[in-house]
Amino acid sequence: ASPPISDIVLHGILSWASMGFLMPVGIVVIRMLNKEDCGQRKLRLLIYFHAILQMLAVLLATAGGVLSLKSFENSFNNSHQRIGLALYGAIWVQVLIGFRRPKRGSKGRSAWYCCHWILGTLVSLLGIFNIYTGLKAYQKRTARSAGLWNFLFTAEISLLAFFYLFQDKWEYLQKQGLVSGTDPSTPSNQVLPQRDNRKEVLVEPSRKSNSLGNYFAKTNALRKLFQLT
């Protein structure tokens, strides 16, 4: 028997809220830790906020998985169901890795960071891809258009990706704006002395030329005076 449309819609909402919203937002939040002005208090708050978002995402994804096992035909003969099954296992592995976080400076910190980062990125990307396959399955199962939902989801992911990539550049652009506002004063101070030096250099030859002219004028006058006498 075909599952009720309400169960399909609920499964889609749970999957979007977990894989399509909370998990990407949690990644954007943890990205803020790379900023230079991140103090200890802000660092701790961002880590806790990241953990809360990821745990909510895992719980909602698990609820969506339980709903699909109870209400849908799970023959696992399509990519959406296969990817979904792999994601349900991967997110719980990621949770266990997250709780086993070593302290900073410890021996296994680098290996843990690489593993946590790579697995988290793969889970997020596969989750986003699986939402698109789920929308395609929804359109096929219900004969309803999913074009609007595809557009809205693409717009949301694009905005999150833009913010993820731009937040570090924004601080850089702000610094560039401050530098461009303060730098013009220093070159002007450096140029003015050069101009003054040029004036001094130009004045000195003119003074020398005037003194030479006066000298020759005086000598000519003396010669004429001697000739007359």
Can you describe this structure?
With 229 residues, this protein is mostly helical. The chain folds into two domains: 5-182, Up-down Bundle (Four Helix Bundle (Hemerythrin (Met), subunit A)), CATH 1.20.120.1770; 191-229. The protein is 85% helix and 0% strand. It is built from six helices and no strands. It has helices at residues 5-31, 40-71, 79-99, 109-142, 147-182, 185-228. The radius of gyration is 37 Å and the shape is globular. The model is unreliable at 181-192 (pLDDT under 50).
> What profile does the largest beta sheet have?
none
- Choose one word for the global shape: globular
Structure classification: mainly alpha
Strand content: under 5%
CATH topology of the largest domain: Four Helix Bundle (Hemerythrin (Met), subunit A)
**CATH class group of the largest domain:** Mainly Alpha
**Helix-residue proportion:** over 70%
Mean pLDDT: 80
Structural Rg? 37 Å
DSSP strand tally? 0
Tell me the domain tally. 2
> How far is the N terminus from the C terminus?
142 Å
Poorly predicted sequence stretches spanning 5 or more consecutive residues: 181-192
How would you spell out the order of helices and strands? Answer: HHHHHH
Number of helices: 6
Q: What is the CATH architecture term of the largest domain?
A: Up-down Bundle
